[in-house]
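Protein folding task:
====================
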Amino acid sequence: MDVLSYMQQVGCKARAAAQSIAIADTGKKNAALIAMADAIAQSRQLLIEANQKDLAAGREKCLDAALLDRLELNDAGIDGMIEGLKQVAALADPIGEISDMCYRPSGIQVGKMRVPLGVIGIIYESRPNVTVEAASLCLKSGNAAILRGGSEALHSNQAIAACVQQGLKAAGLAEDTVQILSTTDRAAVGYMITHPEYVDVIVPRGGKGLIERISRDATVPVIKHLDGVCHTYIDEQADIEKAIKVAMNAKTQRYGTCNTMETLLVARSRISDILLPLAEQLIAKGVELRGCAETCQQIPQAIAATEEDWQSEYLAPVLSIRVVEDMAEAIEHIHRYSSQHTDVIITENYSKAREFLRAVDSSSVMVNASSRFADGFEYGLGAEIGISTDKLHARGPVGLEGLTSQKYIVLGDGHIRQ
């Protein structure tokens, strides 16, 4: 079967499955999620073996370190998938929730009911755990899903897909509710993003090139973010221990993620007591520092930053540093260069913290916490389908509610309009 015929078949199955899962009861959906978790636990060794095949192939293809980091699936990653499934199962089911009911002067009652979006297409690269996160959130929110992982994670995704299908079958739900494409042909992506009769929304997760292509070519609505240029500003009134601890975690806890700090902004008055010892720790960790003229003057190991550096999502042990006069200058820099993903202030001044929260227009804004917390799991969403920097419909980590919409409902008793 050619790719277009295959995709048409997948689309038809997804549209049919969307109708049944939209009205499935919460118990069945939760049972499927728990069954998926059990299947993954029982298949732990098979998943690791499949992932090792992908890692070996990735090394042969000379994939960069950040990509290999996202591709790796170890015991901790598998435990995270299992816990994520259980957390989603424990979350309240948003579907059918009625809100804002009120009587109108005519006597009718008007309110809103939360409903699924329909069929969600997720196109992603590298991270095998996305298969589970996407499947669980789409299922619990009453949506059918078409998942298309990258060729570099083919063995891992297919092994996880078998666990997902096992869970759906165990709960008596249509196995077509979650379909993981068996083809890595790029034409499959082109089909998904241009056929709104089969797909209601697209969520791309991957590199900038992938997201730019989908945003440009899609005729289906897209939930996305392009870059994670995340900033941490260390204020004049920052606590030394907190500032160093938070900044180190934001940069070095994991390099290849969209919520990793890429630019550090430091108030000029904190160069000697915070920036210099922090730089020592970063250099000891192998982080390359690129800085403004003042940074390079204070830190001999730093190299001069270019205009491109302030706009870069490195996804690597590289950090841009700029010394600023005060919070106003820090906010001005963030407004100019931020990708509106996650930005942080470290300060003990409550008023400044509140001002920063109001002034910085990003999908997540934090006070005295690592940008690495910008994650659906950490926010209590169970998992996330992605992080949106758009301003309409969903913003920030997209969990269950972000995969739903609302429709108006009207209750009457023979009422007619006069």
Remarks:
- The first strand starts at residue 98 and ends at 103.
- The chain has a mean pLDDT of 93.
